[in-house]
Write a structure and sequence with these properties.
The complex is a heteropentamer, with two copies of chain A (221 residues), one copy of chain C (252 residues) and two copies of chain D (232 residues). By secondary structure, chain A is mostly helical. Chain A is globular and about 55 Å long. Chain D has seven helices and nine strands; from the N terminus they run βββαββαααβαβαββα. The chains are: A mainly alpha (221), C mainly alpha (252), D alpha/beta (232). At the A-B interface, helix 2, helix 3 and helix 7 of A face helix 2, helix 3 and helix 7 of B. Bound molecules: protoporphyrin IX containing FE, adenosine-5'-triphosphate (ATP) (2 copies) and magnesium ion (2 copies).
Chain lengths: 221, 221, 252, 232, 232
Amino acid sequence: MNVALAILWKDLVSEWRSRDRVVAMLIFSILMAVVFHFALPDQDPEALRALTPGLLWTAYLFAALLGLNRSFALELENDALGGLALAPGNRGWIFLGKAAANWVLISIVQVLTAGVFAVFYRVDLLPGLTGLASVVGLGTLGICAAGTLLAAMAVRTGFREVLLPVLLLPALFPILAGAVQGSMAAVAGRPVPFESLQLLFVIDGVYLIVAFLGFDYVLDE
Amino acid sequence: MNVALAILWKDLVSEWRSRDRVVAMLIFSILMAVVFHFALPDQDPEALRALTPGLLWTAYLFAALLGLNRSFALELENDALGGLALAPGNRGWIFLGKAAANWVLISIVQVLTAGVFAVFYRVDLLPGLTGLASVVGLGTLGICAAGTLLAAMAVRTGFREVLLPVLLLPALFPILAGAVQGSMAAVAGRPVPFESLQLLFVIDGVYLIVAFLGFDYVLDE
Amino acid sequence: MKPGNETAPNPEADIPSPLEARMSRWRRPLGIVLGLLTIGYAWSVVSAPIDHTQGVIQKILYVHPPLAYGAYLGFVITGFAGMVFLGRGREDLDRLAIASAEVGVIFCTLMLVTGPIWARGTWGVWWSWDARLTVTLLLWFVYLAYLLLRGFGGRNPRTARFAAIYGVLGLVLIPLNYYVIEIFGSRSMHPENLKQGSLGDGMGLPFLLGNLALAGAFFYLLLLRWEVESQRAREDDQGSEARVGGPRAPKD
Amino acid sequence: MNSPQLKLRGVRKRYASVTALRGVDITLAPGGSLAILGPNGAGKSTLLRVMAGLAHPTAGRIEFAGGKHDRGQVGYLGHATLLYPELTARENLIFAGRLYGVNSPQARADQLLAEEGLGEVAERRVGGFSRGMAQRLSIARARVHSPKLLLLDEPFTGLDEPAAQRLTERLTTLSAEGHGLVLTTHEISRAARLARSAVILVDGTVQESIDSDAMSEAELRAAYARALEAAP
Amino acid sequence: MNSPQLKLRGVRKRYASVTALRGVDITLAPGGSLAILGPNGAGKSTLLRVMAGLAHPTAGRIEFAGGKHDRGQVGYLGHATLLYPELTARENLIFAGRLYGVNSPQARADQLLAEEGLGEVAERRVGGFSRGMAQRLSIARARVHSPKLLLLDEPFTGLDEPAAQRLTERLTTLSAEGHGLVLTTHEISRAARLARSAVILVDGTVQESIDSDAMSEAELRAAYARALEAAP
Ligand code: HEM
Ligand SMILES: Nc1ncnc2c1ncn2[C@@H]1O[C@H](COP(=O)(O)OP(=O)(O)OP(=O)(O)O)[C@@H](O)[C@H]1O
Ligand SMILES: Nc1ncnc2c1ncn2[C@@H]1O[C@H](COP(=O)(O)OP(=O)(O)OP(=O)(O)O)[C@@H](O)[C@H]1O
Ligand SMILES: [Mg+2]
Ligand SMILES: [Mg+2]
């Protein structure tokens, strides 16, 4: 528990010092919005608005990839990850600390990104806000759980940036599917379908448990 | 010149040994295709087909980002980039060697990705193939020129993965715009508009020259 | 518990392990049974009635679901063998996991080939982003990534542990793949899962034989692949015993 | 406050194609100190990583006082510094202290910084440290939780003479207080001064071991030479 | 085949908040050899990086035989190994050879591998090398183009005794043949054996310099002590 808090503190302090991760993720998300604009020209505004939740989640996903990669790149210099592995006690707490830090940073970026997309694509997010927030919160939890575990693995095999998306994206599709569906409903002012939330809940739970237990093996050589 | 060839050889040998970059970029691109599907559900096939060139270029762009990042991550361990900086002669050749290696690897991935998109989105690419190939070739040249320079810069500042997209994407928007336009025409069976090619040509030229000359400063401490 | 935390299993662990030795004895008899089954299967598929709406293409039914079940089976074995490997450090089960993942991916690939052929025949398109189809594609991706992880990481215990965890993570998709039809029921193009008596007259026997034959093929390939894997492990083991050592002073 | 007994039995470690350790048996008595010597690539660092619980042995057992390995009792210094370049020296130590559940990490950090002569640079980012400064901080990190057993892989690397001397004194004191010590080095004279027993590894095998309580430098040198001779 | 004269005038180097060099003047005669000594953080590595052309001085000049700095004449060994972990030892040397336009890189690589005692591990990936093995290869890399001037930053780090001895012999030979040599180390005895002149850096300033052709260890030690005294 203390270990988790120590890691959370350490990650947030490093981030506060440089602010590089949040800023980069944010700019990346905004650039995604612009890329989509270039890539999908000639759409009428109505159609574009319908696409917004999907585009938003795509941006979330890739921004999260960026942040997760960085999160472990930090641990790689001077074999700091080896230093974490030396700490006594259950290594699941190390996972929780890293995952919590990722969750905090990614969530900050998501809130800001949502604002940007709302302006760009002229969508009013306020009416369905609670629904949207719960879907995003749950979805991000799953992304951070699986992402933290798999980023640690990718980093340890020495292939880092390249292996993470290959491992992570397939694991995240169910989350993406549920989250996009839920977000679409929320944005359209409908209640979030129960199945979406259920799906997210179950997957989050499974990923958290597997990651907590599995992290022990990930840090071993 | 010899320096450029030596670096090209070294990069291709490393890649051949692990094949990690090509495989990862390829799978990443395919996953992008699937992500788009999740993000843009309920589109009728006709509309989706029209979007294909844009989606394809988005996939190209992000796959290239992945590859470029990795390309310099390789140089970072043990300060190997410092080793390159020690080599005598004009450092522009170092740039050319890295850029050429990136161009080869990214092009391989692009050909395969185009095949996958053609099947997934039911687009027949054969009729406009020459047009498409020339647009892709030119566009990729620009991506590699700017990308290699900026990736080296990003890596030198120590922020790497996070800084590269932020620096690179804005520089690539003009290329993206021209390339998407050209590709759309080619896929639709129309001749590629002259302005697109012109735009790509000019930008490629400028980026290549700037990068060749600027690389000297990038490698200095 | 973890593999060899403070007590690694017996140093010169036998390769093949007792389990592997026992299992590999089953391969030959299984091969014979498989041969017989295949003959009966082929005969029954040929003599089964031709579907009056779809025509001959409907005969894909006799391979398509069995392939799916084989893929499920392969991935489930991968996941559980991985769990036991993690918990007990049983390297023979790690080798089983590799074998099983590969055979599963082969079955899944064949399903991704036969499905679209059938789809082309009845729906008129090769591919649609139907929920079932999409999740099947994902399943394929996950275990392809599993194999890639093993390929990238090389043959070492660390990679084996990572792969085991990833294999367990991937298990989430199997129930999702099966029940996705029920979840998205109405909007799905792919027909629902088979229920008691949903097959037409005369189609039951060939379908049953198909399941048996392909299950037989699955286990035959699995055992074969497992043997190859333990063979490789043994060669590795012996190879690394040959002196490697560090650098030497030059002998002048 | 003696260190627990450390016992390795038949420890083997194989990397993909290289076998680094081929069945190593070592017993370190409570409060004992051991020097691991051997040529480059002999397996010294691998052995230390196994002792630290960082690397799994491919086969064999490692025990603490007959029981399970306990990472909390061990301090480890490796070839990598284990430090975070973006944090300051002080923050690095505080973080390490928290990882090990040290009671007041701030106070402990300040104490260690002073001992290692890093007081003046305590608030500087570790990324800009010189090799010797990083090495000192890394030594402090290994000691942050006052471990009963210290594992040091070439601890003198990059230290200037006064710092090396201070380290020698500190290790002697710790050893006298009953802390366990295992170290690797290529300087046989230092090894003889610091450790009461030694093993000489060649090619992943213990070729010679000395366990007399008063090990002399000459004796150690002779054993080293014999070990190199004996190896194929 | 004497090395060109190397001349530094008023070299300063400032990092963001730290000044590592505060106006250093050094002249190395053709074929001369120089030891740079000083406590941790004195600026030795920074000075060597400036000489190698890796770091730009913030102010001041650096000249070769009165002319421009020429990277092709310099071989550099730093704290980092400059090696590619995914390539084999041999490939690393061949690559370095090509970078410098060596005539037949393969033959040169094989020769250097044999000299460093790495013949047996030539085809192994460098990623799995032990510290000493990597250090040897890194030394070979610095020498791949037979540079006229060798800059070595703590070259003995991690080497076992036989390897260290071979390196000493090789450097003595090179020096005798007229190659220039600049090295840093914390072992004063080694410095006295290898170099004919020395400077002692403290806090980015040259506090003492010895330029007698027969520098003795005792003399060097005394100068080192004086320099530490003199520094504030
Ligand atoms: C890429 C994946 C797949 C494709 C393209 C595909 C395609 C098809 C097609 C075209 C049919 C015939 C539909 C019709 O008669 O209208 C079918 C039937 C069937 N599929 Fe799939 N399928 C896929 C995956 C799966 C999976 C994973 C299962 C797992 C259980 C499955 C089980 C079945 C069953 C049981 C039927 C027969 C249903 C019936 O006749 O009542 N399919 N599939
Ligand atoms: N991660 C690894 N992958 C592959 N081989 C490795 C790895 N780590 C070590 N080895 C190999 O294991 C052997 C022992 O290495 P180790 O680092 O333990 O040697 P050492 O005795 O510490 O040497 P040195 O004195 O040079 O530090 C060497 O042959 C080395 O190449
Ligand atoms: N990249 C950097 N950023 C900030 N400060 C730096 C950087 N590199 C060196 N310094 C600082 O410059 C000073 C000199 O460092 P340098 O590495 O040259 O010392 P050194 O004499 O080689 O020490 P050592 O004996 O420990 O290797 C130190 O105070 C160090 O903190
Ligand atoms: Mg070592
Ligand atoms: Mg230094």
